[in-house]
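The material for today's practical consists of a large collection of protein records. Read left to right, the backbone structure tokens trace the chain's path through space. An example says more than a description, so a record of this kind follows:
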Amino acid sequence: MSGAEDPKKQCQREARIAAMDLLARREHSRRELVSKLERRFVPDVVAATVDTLADEGLQSDRRFAEAYLRQRSERGYGQLRIRQEMRQRGVSDQLITEAEAACEVDWYALLERVAKRKFGDAEPADLSEKAKRQRFLMYRGFSTEQIRDVLD
């Protein structure tokens, strides 16, 4: 009996080590971690490993959401894009909202910094140039209302 358990325990140990290696580099959402581990390990071992790590507080979607929001906003991305990216990584809307409240990003100030860095202080030469700026800022994840308030 113990001979049959040894390979499974070995697999569980390896999955835990792989997960800890990933988490040591940066925070991962549960979905990201499961996806990466399932490339190398069977799904039930992965699920058990990630559950254990979450119970031990080593993997947390809340911590991931806060870290991701801070990192992406510092790189000049807007609220809409960051929210979408976090949803794609399996973070719930509730955790996203809580992370936004905890980080307290001033989205208008961020938008102004991004626009100034990309376009400088000069006003758009014509409507085509203004539309180009609006498209860029929308791609970055800022709302139409935010863009209109800052550019006008």
The two ends are 74 Å apart (CA to CA). Residues 2-25 form the longest helix (24 residues).
